[in-house]
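Annex B. Sample input.
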Amino acid sequence: MTEINKPDFLFEVSWEVCNKVGGIHTVISSKALSMVKELGDNYIVIGPDLWKDENNNPAFLEDTRAYNQWIEHARSKGLKIKMGRWSVPGSPLAILVDFTPLFTGKDEIFTHLWLKYKLDSLNGQWDYIEPALFGYAAGMVIESFCQYHLTFSDKIIAHFHEWMTGCGILYLRENFPQAGTVFTTHATVMARSIAGIGLPLYESLAGAAPDARELNIVAKHSLEKISAGEADCFTTVSDMTARECKRFLDKDPDIVTPNGFDEFIVPDNFLFLEKREIARQKLFQVARFLFDSPVAENTLLVIHSGRYEFRNKGLDVTIDAMEILSHNTPPEVPLILFIFTPAYCTGPRKDIMEQWHNHAERGNAVNRILTHHLQGSQDDPVLQRLLGNHLNNSNPNVRVVFSPVYLNGQDGIYNLDYYDLLAGFDLSIFPSYYEPWGYTPMESLAFRVPSITSNLSGFGVAVQAGKENFETGIGIVTRTDTNSRETSAEIARMVLEFSGKDSAQMHAIRESAQQTSRKFQWKNLLGEYRKAFHMALVKADKRAELFIKGKPAETHFLWAGSKPSKPAVPIWRKIFIQLHLPPGLEPLKKLAGNLWWTWDYEAAGMFRSIDPVLWERSRQNPLVMLNSLSAGALAKLAGNKPFLEKLSSTGSRFDSYMRSAAQAGPSVAYFCMEFGLHADLKLYSGGLGILAGDLLKEASDRNIALTGIGLLYRDGYFVQKISDRGEQMAVTVPQSFSNQPLHPVYTSDGDWLKVSIAFPGRTVFAKIWLVKVGRVQLYLMDTD
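Annex B, continued. Sample output.
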């Protein structure tokens, strides 16, 4: 694969950035750390600004310094945006977009998209209009950022998730063709709608199916289908969803990009055992209070969790399986199923909060099942299915606890987040009917909790092993449109088999579960994303003529309240092309990248002799001068025998100088606010700087192990004087700070080294530039 595969900038757009709704939030937030390690702050996520007040959004921390000049420029053009960081591991740069100013122009926007792409928005309601306009606004933001900061040579990827962001793809295709676009559908609108209303989805995949008009999803389906067709690369998350795409979108995905998780979510062994013990104590405490009776220590703790989709998530067959175990074939040990499914919860039960140790009569069956108050409990499908199956916790062999809450550590009863409580379980059950991927069973395996899932979940298809005996920590039941009863019996059989395992077998299965999960860590799955980016960049490159010969016309749709713009004022940028020297001249690059030449007068004279006029015009900056030479001038220089002899002798002298053995002695770190190294390097203001610069040169000549540390004061010419591109750089960061462990992550991006340090409660980012001063190295922290 050629070098084109890696983007210089990657924008990832989703309705669930800084806005937790469902599984897509988990996908992007868990992947963010890996993307930041790969691209640094050139990875930017974009989400909707739904909170209006940044102080109310716990997932977003605004940073008024980040790209502040562009932010001011964008706002002057009517874009209502905030820049900051998403409070997830990796702390990626995030842009929140207020799309509501587009409301007044929505009819013109949708009319244009109909004329241009045949996007049928006519019957779209507000649950279509809002996300569609968000996607459109995100496209405008990407265009604005790139035109302000980037050049025509930059490789740009815009990755859009789900139909909600699809208008961004259409906007960029017309207005900013430089961007390569990737569109990922996690679940097609058609399939989700069919499954959601209880129709036989898998018969529809194989044969006749209702159309979008019957399902009242014409606009959403239209946007999804057109986005898949217009994107440079179309992906989905599993082979299961790929079938949907072929059937309902008339397009096979270009690449399947499976979902993963980052290993940071799983604590190390010692901490894991501690969390497991805390979780089990809490679960037993809740059960004992609800049941008003002892709970055996060997009780099998089983979990079902996720969105409240009674059939799609397999709640129906799970509860029916408990009924089989309770009344027909009891397990080898007592079993408690905990169901965590957010519903209309009005708060924790006060009697549980106030009377943990009071063994008063619990009252009716509902109070022996529910941990929180549930509005409309008389019509709740889970509760009514439990009571209808006589699962009222009167049978000590099989009992059920229903907690209709989201486990965020603040529910009032458990007060542990999901991962902390998950560690305490022995088995999980997620026999989904419709599950494009399935994070819950994957996360369970990562936490050494064996799982039962189905052949209709994307993750279940991806694993494809251990179906009968949990050899890989997972059991897979077979589901169809019509075999719910058989599925429940199969789940019951698997639970019964699992409950009969001894402690050694249980331990082996738990270890196998975690081992299986490791295949799905993001570090093992990002290769598929790289293929998608490569495909999109190749297609964008074929459109180069569109954006090199002229900038596309600006959109005609104005934001509400924006004033007519003034005549366009060009924004000038310097564009530097990678220097390629003819054979024989390669040493020039090495010599230009080290300030040794500034005090070696023969070397300085050699540079001046190349082109005295250009040398002065370049302010005696060899890198700028070399980049300014034409190909003809370089070819002529390569044939200049006297110059080549001078270059050879200068290069040999430099190599000999650099090879000299360092003197014995301690390593020295020299800190200073300014360094006077050359008249063109604006790193000094007076005598102290000249003294510090001379000290570095003297240390180099004496070959003393000294490292300079200072600040970078931005200057257009200084940026060109940094060391050779792509060189491996290193910097030592103390491994402790206030007695707290640090975890520095180093990434090199050509000329500078980025250090990301996770301090307790926050992450600090720095750009560190390396300047070579003979044998001495000077590290400068970027003040921008």
